[in-house]
């Protein structure tokens, strides 16, 4: 799977960055993190399978959208939305071939 190096969400451009490992403040292992101050969506190299990676990427983008327009979504809602949106896009073949590793 080839994710873009940058994504525009609202008025802000976020750099998509790969990191070896991500941890939360309580030392919980994370697959992704969104940082509105630095303008970064960080993804852990531990995301091995494409579906997990895409879900994590969409999850972090939803956090950025949530912050951008003050939707008030909690973590559980973002988690459920990212899962369903990922399944919708993949199951209905709505993603560009270049993103999915093809042409």
Written description of the protein model:
- The chain has 103 residues and is an alpha+beta fold.
- The chain has one domain.
- The chain is built from 2 helices and 6 strands, in the order E-E-E-E-E-E-H-H.
- The chain has a 4-stranded mixed sheet, covered by helices on one side. Strands 3-4 form a two-stranded antiparallel ribbon.
- The chain is globular and about 35 Å long.
- The N and C termini lie close together (12 Å).
- The mean pLDDT is 90.
Strand content: 15-25%
Shape descriptor: globular
Distance between the termini: 12 Å
Major β-sheet profile: 4 strands, mixed
Succession of helices and strands? EEEEEEHH
Which structural class do the helices and strands define? alpha+beta
Our Rg estimate from Cα atoms comes to: 13 Å
Count of the separate structural domains: 1
Helicity level = 25-40%
Low-pLDDT residue intervals, each spanning 5 or more residues: none
Counted beta strands: 6
Instruction: Write down the overall mean pLDDT.
Output: 90
């Amino acid at each position: 799977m080839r994710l873009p190096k940058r994504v525009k969400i609202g008025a802000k451009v976020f750099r998509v960055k790969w990191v070896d490992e991500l941890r939360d403040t309580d030392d919980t292992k994370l697959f992704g993190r969104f940082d509105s101050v630095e303008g970064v969506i960080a993804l852990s190299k531990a995301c091995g399978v494409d579906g997990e990676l895409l879900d994590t990427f969409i999850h972090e983008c939803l956090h950025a959208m949530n912050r951008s327009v003050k939707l008030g979504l909690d973590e559980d809602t973002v988690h459920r939305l990212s899962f369903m949106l990922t399944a919708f896009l993949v199951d209905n073949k709505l993603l560009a071939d270049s993103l999915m590793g093809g042409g």
